[in-house]
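User: Could you go from structure to sequence for me? I need the amino acid at each position, not a summary. Structure tokens:
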């Protein structure tokens, strides 16, 4: 195989999006993935309109739509099942692109199929665990634990929150920063609720918060039931698990969610019916002063891991990929392209990381919980003005770069 211009470390959502974007821009690349076999992993992901704009420009919207649910509404409810706030999403809110809820494995499969079809069967090389990257005036050499070195003009670390490339650039960074909140996640075939295209968030982390949405349509094979993704979050200051693939125990979360049942959804029953539960810590890292060092840079969770409190992690990685591909197209596979990429995406993602800590969309639930004292209320207007709730949501869209006007008028990256 000839040496490509760009060496991509990591074959996740960010790495594959970068490969497709570089190919679209006419730039050669190859992806090196550490695992020996690609297996379906994870649970649900939301693709907001800013991410869907980029995936649509890659020609993937139809393929994704066939394997997902187009989200119509985002709704918030109290721990007691009382309505707090809702808003339309995606095309129902006036965007030119939809919001899709999809299983992470399905998103990954669409991206991987597209990379293989467009770049060739050898575009993704498995079982390549990077040990170090060396650079000189003309290029980068990736060294692997179990294979011969590979040479390219640039190398981009898309290898996740425990990135080997980031660790080389920042050897003293320490472990990810724990938020004090632990998460359990699962997906189960369950009856549709609230029209079958609503994303719901309920409660608050002090006593138990949930995020629930469908990610796969109902089929005859599924007994006419959609696949429902759920996330349960509880404040747990002593949680230290950092492996992101741990199996959760029902006994650890059910005390907080036992008997939680609304007129339109039996949340505790849904959780108890889930065959496999995953456990994750809610972690992130402080924003870095820079990602790019000569011919090396970072992308996605390797660059800016963030709390999953705004459905933004995958979208920001996809935008990183598109921005970087556009700059390499204009400036070549050079350190100058990485400097410009850093200058654009570093500050933008730092704002999202910090906002996800302090004022993400689910701060709506926090405000209602605190102002109501966690007690039932007759009307949300007795607790907080609906206009204040809308303002909180609108502020986040601007920070994350997906308010309607900004997204519609921004030029294409590639």
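Assistant: Here is the amino acid at each position, in order:
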């Amino acid at each position: 195989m000839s040496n490509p211009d760009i060496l991509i470390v990591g074959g996740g959502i960010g790495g594959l999006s970068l490969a497709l974007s570089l190919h679209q821009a006419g730039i050669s690349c190859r992806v090196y993935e550490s695992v020996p076999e690609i297996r379906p992993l994870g649970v649900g992901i939301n693709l907001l309109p800013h991410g869907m704009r980029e995936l649509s420009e890659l020609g993937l919207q139809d393929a994704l739509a066939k394997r997902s649910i187009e989200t119509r509404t985002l709704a918030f409810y109290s721990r007691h099942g009382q309505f707090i706030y809702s808003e339309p999403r995606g095309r129902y809110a006036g965007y030119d692109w939809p919001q899709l809820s999809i299983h992470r494995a399905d998103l990954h499969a669409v991206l991987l199929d597209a990379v293989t079809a467009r770049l060739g069967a050898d575009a993704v090389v498995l079982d390549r665990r990077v040990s170090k990257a060396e650079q000189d005036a003309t290029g980068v050499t990736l060294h692997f634990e179990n294979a011969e070195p590979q040479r390219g003009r640039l190398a981009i670390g898309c290898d996740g929150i425990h990135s080997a490339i980031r660790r080389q650039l920042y050897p003293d960074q320490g472990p990810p920063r724990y938020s004090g909140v632990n998460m359990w996640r699962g997906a189960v075939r369950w009856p549709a609720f609230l029209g079958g295209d609503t994303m719901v968030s309920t409660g608050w982390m002090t006593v138990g918060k949930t995020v629930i949405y469908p990610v796969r349509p109902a089929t005859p094979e599924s007994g006419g039931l959609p696949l429902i993704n759920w996330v349960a979050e509880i404040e747990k200051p002593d949680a230290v698990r950092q492996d992101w693939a741990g199996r959760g125990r029902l006994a650890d979360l059910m005390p907080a969610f036992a008997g939680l049942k609304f007129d339109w959804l039996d949340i505790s029953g849904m959780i108890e019916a889930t065959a496999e539960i995953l456990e994750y810590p809610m972690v992130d890292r402080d924003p870095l002063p820079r990602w790019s060092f000569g011919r090396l840079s970072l992308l996605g969770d390797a660059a800016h891991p963030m709390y999953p409190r705004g459905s933004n992690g995958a979208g920001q990685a996809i935008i990183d990929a598109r921005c970087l591909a556009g700059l390499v197209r204009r400036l070549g596979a050079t350190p100058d392209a990485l400097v410009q990429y850093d200058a654009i995406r570093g500050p933008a993602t730092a704002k999202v990381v910090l906002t996800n800590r302090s004022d993400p969309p689910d701060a709506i639930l926090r405000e209602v919980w605190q102002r109501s004292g966690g007690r039932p209320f007759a009307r949300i207007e007795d607790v907080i003005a609906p206009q204040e709730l809308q303002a909180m949501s609108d502020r986040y869209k601007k920070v994350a770069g997906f308010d309607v006007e900004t997204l519609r008028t921004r030029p294409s990256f590639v």
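One structural detail worth keeping in mind: The mean pLDDT is 96.
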